[in-house]
Design brief:
This protein has helices at 5-19, 29-35, 40-50, 77-95, 101-113, 120-139, and strands spanning 24-27, 57-62, 68-73. By secondary structure, the chain is mainly alpha-helical. The longest helix has 20 residues, at 120-139. It starts with a helix and ends with a helix.
Length: 142
């Protein structure tokens, strides 16, 4: 049986994630579309329907010329929800120019990798502490 384009894109992304050390990849939508000779909207469809929080993924995207899609796989969906919430908070800080893109990238990398061996309760405490520390850091300039 021949696999659909969406199935092939999904499989390709999952293989990339499985081969990454951090269970996380960063891809460009246009490059992936070029690889599969399809429209970027087809890649967007796969990301939106197959890499969801319910499936154990956090997908963060940044649009524009140097835009990317960062996909992180996590077995612990409760931690995943908190990670997504904190990532969204960090995205807002960048949008409001409270922190730089480099600072954001460092924070997201640390969140995805430094605490992966902690249990849910420990991660929850760490994520809360990090959010409070970021708020204090951003308010230093006021």
């Amino acid at each position: 049986m021949k696999k659909s384009l969406a199935d092939r894109i999904e499989q390709y992304i999952k293989v990339l994630i499985d081969h990454s050390e951090s269970n996380q990849i960063e891809i460009q939508r246009a490059e992936l579309a070029e690889t599969f000779n399809c429209a970027p909207s087809q890649v967007t469809y796969v990301l939106a329907t197959r890499f969801t929080e319910r499936e154990g993924y956090v997908t963060i995207s940044r649009r524009g010329g140097k835009g990317y899609v960062r996909i992180t796989h996590c077995e612990d969906t409760a931690s995943l929800r908190e990670f997504a919430e904190l990532s969204g908070f960090i995205d807002e800080l960048v949008a409001n120019k409270a922190i730089s893109q480099v600072e954001k990238d460092l924070l997201i990398y640390l969140l995805a990798n430094a605490f992966k061996d902690l249990n849910y309760q420990q991660k929850s405490q760490v994520y809360d502490g990090i959010k409070q520390a970021i708020i204090a850091y951003v308010n230093l300039d006021d």
